[in-house]
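ESCALATION

Customer reports they have been waiting on this structure for their group meeting. Please prioritize. Original submission:
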Amino acid sequence: MRVIDRINEILKEKNLSKKELACRLIDLGLRANKTGEAPKMSSIYAYLNGNIELKADMIPFIADALGVYEQELFFSNDSNKMLQKFCAKEPTLAKYSHIIELLEYISPKSLEVLEQTLLNQKEKTIQLNKIIQTL
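Update from on-call: job pushed to the front of the queue and completed.
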């Protein structure tokens, strides 16, 4: 899910309009990096409609304006709920459900590192199992 899609999902959940969010962003002091000036409403709408790619420095302002943690802009609650249900149905996975609950708080970079670590562990386990089978 794209960040802008998640922002729109949160807007719907909180029954807020893009105009309200744009006003909040201006009130919070959102400034353009290059000019140091407050962006125009048309520019903010372009970001919120996905016509212009969001800048990383906007994320804290958007999260603050929406009253959510920055990490919540990167993960859909629906996908977390689906994972939790899946783990609840699988007894062997249920003991890891607390880890899934924590994933919504992980940064995208940390998530990449976690994924790579797990892939490396998987490869090592496969190699070890091959060695054990040959004994």
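Sent to customer with the following note: The chain has a mean pLDDT of 82.
Escalation resolved.
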